[in-house]
Design a protein that fits this description.
This protein is α/β, with parallel strands linked by helices. The chain has one domain (7-269): Spore Coat Polysaccharide Biosynthesis Protein SpsA, Chain A. The protein is 37% helix and 22% strand. Helix 3 (73-82) runs antiparallel to helix 4 (85-95). It comes from Pseudoclavibacter terrae. Residues 7-282 form the Nucleotidyl transferase domain. One of its GO terms (molecular function) is UTP:glucose-1-phosphate uridylyltransferase activity. InterPro entries: GalU_uridylyltTrfase_bac/arc (IPR005771), NTP_transferase_dom (IPR005835), Nucleotide-diphossugar_trans (IPR029044).
Length: 305
């Protein structure tokens, strides 16, 4: 009987240069999506999947991340005195979400290096990695499925999504065992057995149209592999390179299984996608949606006139 997986790592040390000057003084993870920062959606997703121990890998000028998930006693007292209990509940929700820890990455040596920094905190347990730029419309259901696949196979698990080939060079791309029919899968039709990964290939070199998106369920052996992984593209230690090793030696490392995600993914690290995420999630909000959706239809009509 395996112990339940409870730990998640969220790399959050990036500078957010695509959003300058907004991110000159505010971490990109703290940019609001409707009424809460993007990073809160990611932590909520982890908690919904049963992961109660969250380690954020941060950098300089990220103190507001820690402040957001900490108590603000004077604000709580003020809201309580005013009888603004709904606001107080929303403030306390962030504080009580999970047991959140923080560790600085130090040198900005890539995603693989950020994950490696978590080694001491994680120990010898499987754990999840959630990239803070991606918000999943399905909440924690994708992570729950990945945990289930890990429990069935013992493998590391990555989330995949079908991507248009003209965008494929922006992603790590999966090569997979085509001898296993896609309708059958490894443990269901949404799963494939990875044979390798290619980081940001040219369109003509991409082994498939299945791109790795920002969710991983990793066996602890990944730390040993990362320690031996040389810097790759951009002089950084790439997590994709380590996953390539895990996928190539299933006997030693359990292999890598991909879960193909069919839900909506919001890439809040991209300006246009960030705006789309804000509009779509606001449209789904029971308080904002009834007024916002008719206005959006009217505005869209004006654009086509």
């Amino acid at each position: 009987m395996r112990a339940p997986i409870t730990k998640a790592v969220i790399p959050a040390a990036g500078l957010g240069t695509r959003f300058l000057p907004a991110t000159k003084a505010i971490p990109k993870e703290m940019l609001p999506v409707v009424d809460r920062p993007a990073i809160q959606y990611v932590v909520e997703e982890a908690v919904e999947a049963g992961l109660s121990d969250v380690l954020m890998i941060t950098g300089r000028h990220k103190a507001s991340l820690e402040n957001h998930f900490d108590r603000v006693a004077e604000l709580e007292t003020l809201l309580a005195a005013r009888g603004e209990h709904e606001k107080l509940a929303r403030v306390n929700a962030a504080t009580n979400l999970a047991d959140v820890h923080y560790l600085r990455q130090g040198d900005p040596l890539g995603l693989g290096h950020a994950v490696l920094r978590a080694k001491q905190h994680i120990g010898h347990e499987p754990f999840a990695v959630l990239l803070g730029d991606d918000i999943m419309s399905s909440g924690g259901s994708l992570l729950k499925r990945m945990i289930e696949v890990h429990e069935q196979t013992g493998a590391s698990v990555v989330a995949l999504q079908e991507i248009e080939l003209d965008q494929i060079s922006a992603y790590g791309v999966a090569a997979y065992d085509t001898s296993i029919p896609r309708e059958q899968g490894v443990v269901g039709p949404d799963t494939i057995q990875l044979t390798g990964l290619v980081e940001k290939p040219a369109r003509e070199d991409a082994p498939s149209n299945l791109a790795v998106i920002g969710r991983y369920l990793l066996r602890p052996e990944v730390f040993d592999v990362l320690e031996r992984t040389a810097p790759g593209r951009g002089g950084e230690i790439q997590l994709t390179d380590a996953l390539e090793v895990l996928a190539g030696d299933p006997e030693a490392f359990g292999g890598v299984v991909g879960v193909v995600y069919g839900g909506r993914r919001y890439d809040t690290g991209n300006k246009l996608e960030y705006i789309k995420a804000t509009v779509e999630l606001a449209s789904q909000d029971p308080k904002l949606g009834p007024d916002l959706v008719p206005w959006l239809k009217s505005f869209a009509g004006q654009l086509t006139d």
